[in-house]
Amino acid sequence: MKTEHYNHIFGINTDRRNLLKGAAGVAALSATSGLGGFSGSALADSKSLRADILKIPGVGKGSPTDADWQKVGEMCLEATKANVKPGEFKGVELSFMGLNNQNLHNMLFRGFLKPWEAYTGAKINWIDLAQADYNARLQQSIATKTVDFDILEMGAPFEGDVCGKGLASVMPDWVKKQIDIDDYSDYLKPPVGTWDGKTYRVTIDGDCHNFNYRTDYFSDADLAKAWKAEGHQGEWGVPKTWQKVNEVTKFLKGKKIKGQDAIGYLDPAKGWGGFGFYFLEDRATAYVKHPDNKAWLFDPENMKPLVNNPGWVRAIQDVIDCLPSEPADQLNADPGTTAFQQFLAGTGSMLSWWGDVGSMANTSDTSVIGNDVAFDILPGSDDVYNYKTNKWEKLASGPNVSPNCAYLGWGVYVMARVDADPVKQKAAWSAAAHLGGKDLSLWMVMYPSGMQVHRNSHSDIAEWVGAGYQKDYITSYLKSQFGSYNHPNRAIEPRIPGIFQYYSVAEDELAKVYAGKMTAQQGADSIAAAWEKLTDQIGREGQLKLYRASIGM
Amino acid sequence: MTQSAATFQTFPSRPPMVPESQRLAGRLLVLVASIVLIGVFVAQALAAADIFALDLGTWRLSLYAYLAWAVALGVAQVLMRGEAGYKALFLLPALLFTIALVIFPTIFGLYIAFSEWNLSSFEGQKFNGLDNLRTLIHDPYFWNALLNMTFYVVSVFFQYALAFGLALLLNADIRARKFFRVAFLLPFMLSPVAVSWMIGKSLMEFRFGPLAALMRHLGWDNPAFFATPWIARFSIIALDAWVWIPFMIIMLLAGLQAIPKDIQEAAKVDGASTWSTFWQITFPLMLPVSVTTIILRIIFQLKLADIVINTTSGGPGGATDTISSFIFREYRDRSNVGYGTMVAEVYLVLIIVFMTVLLNAVGRFMRREAAL
Question: Which of residues 311-350 of A touch B (CB under 8 A)?
């Protein structure tokens, strides 16, 4: 048996201990029940099911419809049937609050859960929210104690607000088994999805920012010649550090490629309801996330912001320096613009974004860059700022790399208000487990759904190729995703209450910096002052405790 | 007996007398309903403040108590005042609705405005006196937005001039007049959100927008409509004008059509030029309509938010920010309810003061014009 096949089938990391445990388990199972043959058949069935659902409708055969979602939901119902009798939840009504972004999220969930409703007898009432309304609606429900939903689609950054305040239901063990929780990528394992040691989340998405670049730019002979002619160090190629990204961006100003203006990196200089701050983080993590320190946003001793230390200021200065070499309207470009109106539409050669860009570049009608795109983890930095020693350090291992695991993906949470009714509680968890099922998740990350890879089992390139993806493309894409998730120096988002308030207030200050109204240091100091005020407003002691817990201290 | 008393007795102006028992029943009904309303409200307030443990769910119970009180009040009006009570019933729903949805929220808003209430806060809402007001006074974002508002308000006068010109055209005997009247109205029928997407984010889009392409053709190399402060401000004004000029046209056109034709014809017979007719006759006669139009438009303008939020988010560097878009950010993105409410309440006071001063000045001006 090939190692990768073994790993895929058992979904575990290959170490001697796990191997022996697995072997012992299989031996015991065969000896006691003689089900070894059946087990093999079940695995084969699972393989076949995964291949079958991926043909609905088939990659490159147009966007899936509601009928497809229902069909996939029906085919993936076996796991539910193992734990729930037909009609067991008859008369139970659940309300589900989630998003309706780009007609995805809840729209898909409705289809997936329709066969589940028919089988179990439960009924789901839907609360659909636009992304922009989500935060306010959730915060108001929490603050005014008017939680009017039983199941919630939520990002891990809000776990401090919800799980930290005892509003969520603790995941029963049978759900962990049904969804095969051990299959999650390491970075989505505890502490993510947990609070005070209890598990709350069915993960349906994995998030990180990766580096998207245009292959045609970095294989262009004329640009390579010009690069040499201008005396730049090293060969013309894909930048591996932010220092090089900046150099390439400035170098490309005024150059042409395929008759068009050549553009380097794309910085989103306009706020995006707090989400825009992630893109400054992309540049900053390489400068400020030291491998020896877990903290990079706040000092874990006193919650003092680190955002105005020299590492962060350098990241802000980078943006200021690069903006003149970027498109003329960059000051009014938010991340939505940089990804969908610029990069996918053919403007710019480098972009950091969530995996959506990779999953759309080759499949969306709005993309014109087709196969001229490849992926990597975020660039590193030649040196890293150590906030404990207040010094820039050059690591013996080479450039410091710290992929930004921004947002930590969407999950499905069950609210504590169902706990009083055991039938309702089981129904809610069963619905959540169905949505977060292992096979269903593969379909979701492969087709437009707003979700990205988040399980080790999603890394099987053969399954992607079997569904219609090109091998080189998907290899590059998955490598960038899993390379970020599994990086030892990844920057994990702190799951503290009001985290988006910190980001939002920073966006306002950064807008002034980018517009030339203040220097990088002044802007960083203003952000730090605003964050201090915010921490006091929310409660310093509580924030400090949760921050330390969220970064595993 | 005096003459007036005799007249009073001959022609009684009072409605028929309501029996005392009926009047008493009405009073009792109001009293009971009021006690129930106050009782429910106080119980909910105490429960919400965790002073005693009683799970009354949401504030819906208080709403039901208010509705019941409103019905009881209506019935009591009839019981106590007879025919006059029936008349009061026509006014009462609107009055109670206004109290519930305008007056109560404004007063309740004041209560929130003097508290520190971040929705993520561990301690919840707490009274903080004048802190929010002090923060506001030292908040550069507020003053920047207020400064921008003066620019937006001044722009109303230019929009008015344009609207007046278009209204004159639509009032003239031109071909396809009805078509143009409908066509000019169309932008007003669209949501400002839709306009900001269709025009701000599509027509004016830097790379593919037709307007950007036209500008390039005309020699503007980098037609970025929202990347530099003044161009961004004027672009926002252009979008805003696109939506609201039709409203001004409707008002002015109605005014123009109400001007008696004979006055203008008499001027023509007397040999007045077109300009003189406009300046000496049409414009003065249109002053009351113009003033109403401008004042209404200023009130709308002071609430400008949607176009700004959609196209620039207040940027670049706060150049297009408005008070409403700033409040929106404080509320939606930062869940800073206490401070956001304080900004809204202060802005309300500023608007009331500004409009009162403006209306007084306009009234004085109009009276002086009339005297001339």
Answer: 327-332, 334, 341-342, 345, 347
Residue A498 to residue B118, Cβ atoms within 8 A:
yes
Residue A8 has pLDDT above 60, yes or no: no
Residue B2 is predicted with a pLDDT of 45
> Which of the residues A508, A532, A538, A545 would you substitute to probe the B interface, choosing the one with the greatest number of B C-beta atoms within 10 Å?
A508
Indicate the domain borders of chain B. Answer: 14-113, 134-371
Look up the domain containing A99 and give its range: 57-207+407-459
Widest Cα–Cα separation across chain A = 75
**Within a domain: A477:** no
Residues A379 and A446 in one domain: no
CB contact under 8 A, A515 and B316: yes
Q: Does A363 reach chain B within 8 Å, measured CB to CB?
A: no
Contact assessment for residue A542 and residue A183, using Cβ atoms and an 8 Å cutoff: no
Q: How far is CA A457 from the centre of its chain?
A: 16
- Same-domain status, A397 and A262: yes
Query: What per-residue string of b and e applies to A377-410 under the rule 16 or more CB within 10 Å gives b?
Result: bbbbbbbbbbbeeeeeeebeeebbbbbbbbbbbb
CB-CB under 8 Å, A542 with B333: no
The pLDDT tens digits of the residues spanning A416-454 come to 999 999 999 999 999 999 999 999 999 999 887 878 899
Q: CB neighbours of B20 closer than 8 A, spacing ≥ 6? A: none
Q: Is residue A193 part of a domain?
A: yes
The fold for domain B134-371 equals: MetI-like fold (1.10.3720)
Tell me how many domains chain A contains: 2
Asked if residue B153 lies in contact with residue B330, where contact means CB atoms within 8 angstroms, the answer is no
Q: Which of residues 432-471 of A touch B (CB under 8 A)?
A: none
Q: How far apart are CA B113 and CA B97, in angstroms?
A: 23
